[in-house]
Design brief:
By secondary structure, this protein is α+β, with helices and mostly antiparallel strands. It is built from ten helices and six strands, in the order H-E-H-E-H-H-H-H-H-H-H-E-H-E-E-E. Strands 1, 2, 3, 4, 5 and 6 form a six-stranded mixed β-sheet that branches. It is globular and about 50 Å long. One of its GO terms (molecular function) is RNA binding. This is Ribonuclease I.
Length: 275
């Protein structure tokens, strides 16, 4: 009986390990055979997503440790933090008429067998990224939500199927962030912390900083009670800025032809910029 029981336990453990390998396999060693050729993975633009961390800490309910050290003098309360750099639908999905909404839901997991959704708890379910010490240090400084493993979510959802390494992906995103934070647009947001600002004034500040391209900016706001703003419910607390960049010109940002028109945001006419 003992041998039979030990055998059944071993079989159960083997099944568990195999199950975990099936789940983590695409994430730890991406199966390139599941991804179309590089020519079919070309895409038109990036959405460069930035977080206004004070607003995030107020309006989002799932940020946890990322807000533990927030204060008026902290870096994250004086400039934008990194959310992610999101490729638009690759050509293969455009040709297959896969909707934008479907691509945003699945990202790179669209190409995996069974199309499993990325897990909600990235820290426990997604493997840690292999980053150089320099990149990891920059990322922790400019992306507070690494404490929630947002970096893992962003890479595995938005980049792994395009072939870049985590280091290359985040170095590109952080270099873009440095340029935005050095701009007069970020200075305007910082100077108006704690105030209610007209949405048009924020768009005008962006246009003044980036060659008149206010249509490249999508302002994202939420309600202070944690209810996400949407098409039928405009938000008032500034939480994000999404900037649309041409994929073939992203290295030239902030050159005028690196920006392109994106979507309209969901912010109310008056926006609260929290300190």
């Amino acid at each position: 009986m003992r041998h039979k029981k030990e055998g059944s336990v071993m079989a159960w453990m083997l099944g568990l390990v195999l199950g975990l390998l099936c789940w983590f396999g695409p994430l730890t060693a991406w199966a390139k055979e599941n991804v179309p050729p590089a020519a079919e993975m070309r895409f038109q633009h990036y959405t460069f997503a930035l977080l206004w961390q004070p607003g995030v800490c107020k309006a989002w309910s799932d940020v946890g440790a990322s807000c533990a050290h927030m204060g008026p003098r902290s870096r994250a309360s004086r400039e934008w933090s990194l959310h992610g750099l999101w490729a638009s639908r690759p050509e293969v999905l455009v040709r297959q008429q896969v909707p934008d909404e479907t691509w945003w839901k699945y990202g790179c997991n669209w190409f995996e067998p069974g199309r499993p959704p990325l897990p909600h708890d990235s820290c426990s379910a997604l493997p840690a990224l292999k980053l150089s010490p320099a990149t990891e240090s920059r990322l922790r400084e400019h992306m507070p939500m690494t404490n929630n493993c947002l970096d893992r979510h962003e890479f595995y959802k938005h980049e792994v199927c395009f072939g870049s390494s985590p280091d290359a992906y985040f170095t590109q995103a952080l270099n873009l962030l440095d340029k935005v934070n050095a701009s007069s647009f970020t200075a305007f947001v910082r100077d108006h912390r704690g105030e209610w600002v007209r949405r048009d004034a924020l768009l005008r500040a962006f246009a003044d900083a980036f060659h008149g391209h206010s249509d490249a900016l999508e302002l994202r706001c939420e309600q202070p009670d944690g209810a996400r703003g949407g098409p039928r419910r405009e938000g008032t607390v500034l939480t994000e800025a999404w900037i649309t960049l041409r994929a073939d010109k992203v290295a030239d940002f902030p050159a005028p032809d690196s920006l392109m028109a994106g979507r309209k945001g969901n912010c109310a006419r008056l926006i609260h910029i929290l300190p």
